[in-house]
Amino acid sequence: MRSPCNHGVETDPSGDPVNTAVPQTEDAGAAACAGPTDALGTSAAQARSAALEELIRTDPGRFRVLTGDRPTGRLHLGHFFGTLHNRVRLQELGVELFVVIADYQVLTDRDVADNLLQHVEELVLDYLAIGVDPARSTIFTHGAVPALNQLMLPFLSLVSVSELNRNPTVKDEIAHSRQSAVSGLMFTYPVHQAADILFCKANLVPVGQDQLPHLELTRTIARRFNDRYGAGSAVFPQPDALLSSAPLLLGTDGTKMSKSRNNAITLAATVDETARLVKGAKTDSERHISYDPATRPEVSSLLLLAALCQGRSPEQVAADIGSAGAAALKKVVTESVNEYLAPIRARRAEYGQDRAHLRAVLSEGNERARAVADATLAEVRAAMNTCY
Ligand code: TRP
Question: Does ligand 1 have an atom closer than 6 angstroms to the CB of 361?
């Protein structure tokens, strides 16, 4: 029956598809967890991710994935091999995919979100170029989905200030923030991220290590909401983290590849820009090329990059180069990256010709996300007895 809060909102089947899809403590949990479910414990999260992969293969239809990026610049190879690649893989396996372009989250560590429209369009271009299919997957900006943002208020009531205070990822971001004062948004954005995930009742979130505390908070919020307002039935699923197995790629300066450090090879870089960036990459003075991430991090990261592009192991790539030195290694890396990215870059250039299409993809995605968020908010209001 339609709830009294459901003001003319279609009860779209996609609004409520998977909230019971993955029993949290039954088969998925039992298969995955030998010990206690501690999403902060990486090994537990890894074990659970392995079990989830098995479930995804056998029954992709029970999963809805939500993942996303902040629109602060073009995506790079670190993003690609860390998460983007995985999104498309999940989509191709038949998992339903929601991708949020987290525009409000840009304001966590800066006063002004510069060139927002341009950054948003660049992200849509990157997504389309790598194979996110807007016919099957939903790309949206959370700023355009009011009902998603309205979930923030009840969610904030479910967490304590001390819980927000001890989030290690937020602490780290505050330490690296370029702002002199820490804003309320910086402290509370993990709660907003819970709204990004729970508005569509996603039950699977592909993440890197740094996002695990946010996912644990999302699970806490879902559980507390259900306990407090669910009257015996779960309004929200407790989403699982799907930990990326991809090793970390270093930037050309030997530190973590990052948009803000100017050390990244973007998906959109030209063949020549790629060659120049790789040429300037830090290596070491040892002529014999070997894969040893602990003692030769820069050389090893270049080998890894070439290996990921070639679909081989870094040891094999190293053996091919032997004692030919860093210049030969860089030649191999440049050629491998340029060859691997050629079709992605060609698609990117093609989509880039048609801004109207980009805007249509985004407005259709926003519309779909709004319908889903309206249905969820209606349920939340009914559960909270705030239907007037
Ligand atoms: N915080 C994420 C990042 O910086 C981006 C993001 C926003 C996100 N909302 C999300 C990721 C929801 C996963 C789920 O990369």
Answer: no
Measured in Å, residue 101 CA sits from the centre of ligand 1 at 8
DSSP secondary-structure letter at 106?
Answer: G
CA-CA distances (angstroms) from residue 120 to 133, 139, 188?
17, 11, 23
Nearest to 216 by CA among 45, 68, 34: 45
151 lines ligand 1 (CB under 6 A): no
Q: Does ligand 1 lie within 6 Å of residue 109's CB atom?
A: no
Residue ranges of domains in the chain:
28-248+354-384, 271-351
- Topology adopted by domain 271-351: Tyrosyl-Transfer RNA Synthetase (1.10.240)
Tokens of 47: 């074990």
pLDDT tens per residue, range 301-341: 999 999 999 999 999 999 999 999 999 999 999 999 999 99
pLDDT (tens digit per residue) in 127-171: 999 999 999 999 999 999 999 999 999 999 999 999 999 999 999
Q: What CATH topology corresponds to 28-248+354-384?
A: Rossmann fold (3.40.50)
- CA of 205 from ligand 1 middle (Å) equals 9
Ligand 1 close to Cβ of residue 137 (< 6 A)? no
Q: Would you say the pTM of this structure is higher than 0.85?
A: yes
